[in-house]
Amino acid sequence: MGQPGLNRRQLLTALGGLTVAGSLGFAALGTGADALASDARTRVRYWNLFSGGDGVNMIDMLDAFRAATPGVDVKDSTLRWGNPYYTKLAMAASGNRAPDLAVLHLGRLAGFAPERQLDPFDIDLLAEHGVREEDFNPILWQRSLIDGQLYALPLDIHPQLNFYRKDICAQAGLIGDDGNLITLTSPDDWFDALKEARKVVKKGLQTIGLHAFDQNFAWWFFMSFYAQAGGTYYDEHLTDVTFDTDKATEILEFLRRHITDGYNIAGSPDAEHFMNGGAFVWEGGWSVPVYDAPKIPYGATPLPPLFGEPATQAESHAFVLPHQSDRGGAANEAAHRLAAYIVRHAVDWAKGGHIPAYTPTLTDPAYHRLTPQSEYASAMDHLALEPPAWFAGSSGTLAQRIGPVVVAANLGSMTPGAAARRMRQVLTQLLEMPNPMGGGTA
To answer: Which long-range contacts (CB under 8 A, 24 or more apart) does 63-69 make?
Structure first.
């Protein structure tokens, strides 16, 4: 595959983020001939879904682990992001063909049946390798527990952010004495800022990009502001719907206004408009390498707290142990060691825009030198999360069913009030659906 001498890092870069799918039996693509020829005593099979810049960062970290741990041979495989990955992982775990270690979005954890598809981590073994509960945000740690056992080890959070052009915002009077965007705390503040920014933005460019057509982004942005307003979805036992249609209508009206007032041109290439001189774009933190490349002057903050308490939607990449009937021994110990190593050396991972879940990293001077990453690190303390139900999580059933409703409100094919009522209906229907991977309903 590729020309002779073309290594995997070069291949990933050349393909621009194209993932390489693997078979159920032994996975996608190894790290190279050096790994296959290794005489290391212990081999760890590791599946992930990282491509593009994430993939390159992960390969660098794996290479560093290999150099530091010559007794462990990592056979890593990159599979296609989204539902194809999760289907393959679930089938491999159920069929006793699972890798030793894998990556899972934490929001998906409730959908994977403990003991049948996942094995718990040995917290004592993790502690031997320098990873302990007190090193993590309590909310992330609690979301990683099922029946008191640790079924996921968080690697990061990747929040939704407000990217802003410092040059454009400075001309619009929106940059403070610290060189960063001024604080905006209400919808009126926000639209006043957009009004000033539009005066500076070149004709033909939108003032803000917000992916109005994208069901995932539409849902994530709704989640952020709905959480700021104190909105909830279900009670703590996941038995009753608590969705507030009045609050939801207010948020949907707010999102829709960006289009009706002409600040957003629905369907426009949001990233391109921003790089060419748009004032703002809402994106996930993984877009940092995209905006670093053209060397434009920009910053990034969590989505502004316009409806009350700060909150911004975030997901978390986490390590899991796919179920193996004979899990244990050297390979299991090495899987714990590998997961702990990557979690503890997360400054390199943060270069891709993610906020490390391992909180000691956040005080590391090397992390503070990363910009704009250090500007939005506070998002770790203000998480807007999906409910811990089997249908939640990145690219999950909840986003697939409810995201299009938010899009319909964005584009005007459904009124915000009607969309809010439809969202409540979807939440009710999902609560009654059985988990296709087993374990009953939510």
So the answer is: 64/345, 64/348, 65/338, 65/341, 65/342, 68/341, 69/334, 69/337, 69/338, 69/341
pLDDT score at 294 = 92
Helices 245-260, 187-198: axis angle to 10 degrees equals 10
In this prediction, residue 54 has a pLDDT band, given cuts at 50, 70 and 90, of: confident
For strand 42-48 and strand 208-209, is the pairing parallel, antiparallel, or unpaired? unpaired
Nearest to 46 by CA among 350, 319, 356, 351: 319
Q: Check if the beta carbon of residue 243 is closer than 8 Å to that of residue 231.
A: yes
Phi-psi label, residue 360: left if phi above 0, alpha if psi -120 to 50, beta otherwise: alpha
**Both tokens assigned to 195:** 């009004």
What is the crossing angle of helices 215-228 and 245-260, to 10°?
Answer: 120
Going by their DSSP bridges, the two strands 42-48 and 101-105 should be labelled as parallel
- The Cα–Cα gap between 1 and 11 comes to 9
Percentage of the chain lying above the pLDDT 70 cut: 89
- Are 304 and 378 in contact by the 8 Å Cβ rule? The answer is no
pTM for the predicted model, two decimal places: 0.88
Distance, CA of 93 to CA of 322 (rounded, Å)? 5
CB 316 within 8 Å of CB 107: yes
Q: 301: which residues sit within 8 A by CB, 6+ positions away?
A: 161, 162, 164, 180, 181, 375, 376
Tell me: the pLDDT tens digits for 288-327?
Answer: 999 999 999 999 999 999 999 999 999 999 999 999 989 9
Contact yes or no for 51/18 (Cβ under 8 A): yes
Measured in degrees and rounded to the nearest 5, phi and psi for residue 33 equal -60, -30
Residue type at position 223: M
Residue 36: its pLDDT value, please?
41
